[in-house]
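Thread: quick sanity check before group meeting

JM: Hey all, I'm pulling together slides for Thursday and realized we never actually wrote out the predicted structure for the chain we discussed last week. Dropping the sequence here so it's in one place. If anyone has concerns about the input, flag it before I start.
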Amino acid sequence: MPIYQTIIFHLRSGSSLRSIEKTGIAGRKKIAYVLQIATQQNWLNPNSIIPCELDLKVFFEKGRKESPETALTPHKEMVGEWAKEGYQASTIYNRLKSNFGYSGSYDSVQRFVKPFKKSDPNLTTPLHFKPGEAAQIDFGFGPKIFNELTGRLEQTYFFVMTLCYSRHQYAELVLHQDIQTWLNCHQHAFQFFGGFPVKVIIDNAKCAVIKAGYHEASLNQSYEAFAKEYGFIIAPCPPRDPQKKGRVESGIKYVKNAFLPLRTFKNLGDANNQLKDWVINEAGQRIHGSTYEKPLVLFTNEEQKTLNPLPKTLPELGVWSKVRGLRTCHVRHQKCYYSIPYKFYDKEMWLKQTPSSVMIYLDDALIAQHPRLFKPGSYSTHANHLEPKAQAYFERTPTWCLEAAKNIGVSTSFVVEQFLTDPVQDLLRAAQGIIKLGDVYGNGRLEKACNRAIAFNCTSYKAIKDILVKEIEDLDDTGTDLKSLADVYKGAGIYQRYFGSDYNLSFETPVIGHA
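JM (edit): ok, ran it. Output follows.
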């Protein structure tokens, strides 16, 4: 019946018969048969709830064709047990005739016994756990619930954690089965129980297990880190062996059959409120079929005190993912960009995302940390992560250029301000270049070169650099005296604007004229 539920879910999602067949859950004839019944019963309506296993059993067993071995029907259960014990068809046939007055044919018995001989006996051994030793976890399909954010019905999933000793359980309805949801549900369950067990037994859920294996599995790094922070052991089941976590498998079936029927939910929050109340007041108070005790009572009296205590400060949940550096000295994560030191631009790194921050690691070393961004296309950039040329450009702002020019002299300040206030062209790089000429040729020579450029009314970056390269900043070609140039500066209010009225303007050598 769970297979029929899965087929109905895929059909409601619009999957074709061929695509469902490729999943391997059933052949196309069976899928077509399920489609026929589901269409008749209006189960494909997205507003309806997928029937539980008991309801499906009624419809699909009703539709089965009667077996031709009608004389064998009253004895099938008993004959099946004999076949499992290894008795031959002839022996069973003779026993039926002599002891039960069987009137059917030997061929009917032989056909019925044949499948039992082909398959191995389905033997199991129950597992026993100590209080606080282990919990079992799994996801299961939940109902479709109206999502107020999207304005449509959305598929939900049950997250169920069952304590193996007391069978007390935590259940929550969620919209996703990703690693972030998986970790959040773990933390909610531990808070619900007031502690956590030594070991957590899981199926090979894709969000938790990257690659399943019989002897060992490759776990999601986010889940590994979460387990280390809390201090519990992860125990993945072997592939295709769900009986290793039979307690939670039964727990999910119990939730579906006992909680879901005849309930309506306004939204996800309402559904989880009802589910929590049901877990405490109904599921927790029932007499369990294996322990013959009430799960909540057994948990309170015996298991709760054996759980490991929660940390005083709950760990901040972190989700890890691989990223690669871009040529822009950033990494891209969830459509947002975070800077990294430029020398790592083409390397593969690990990114840890928490609710409030993003940390980037290379070979276990933290190389960058940023506040988490949420708006797609947004950037978080640390200036010291950029290459030196880019750092210099972004650090040398117009304000920086004016302050640096002021420290060199009044003529340099006048030239830099002209560049920064040009009404047509952005000359920030020219202003930065003028300041850099002082590093190369000395601030004294630069100030004299700016004097000469002003005198000739040719204050371009190229002209000033040519003066310095040709070493002509000290030439006196016109005999202009210092006083006349000082008067020009004073009339224009140049040095008063930069240095105040008490500034004493003087030059070591005359310049060759003035503007």
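AS: nice. The chain has five domains: 2-62, 70-118, 134-306, 319-388, 396-499. Residues 139 and 159 are 5 Å apart (CA to CA).
JM: adding both to the slides.
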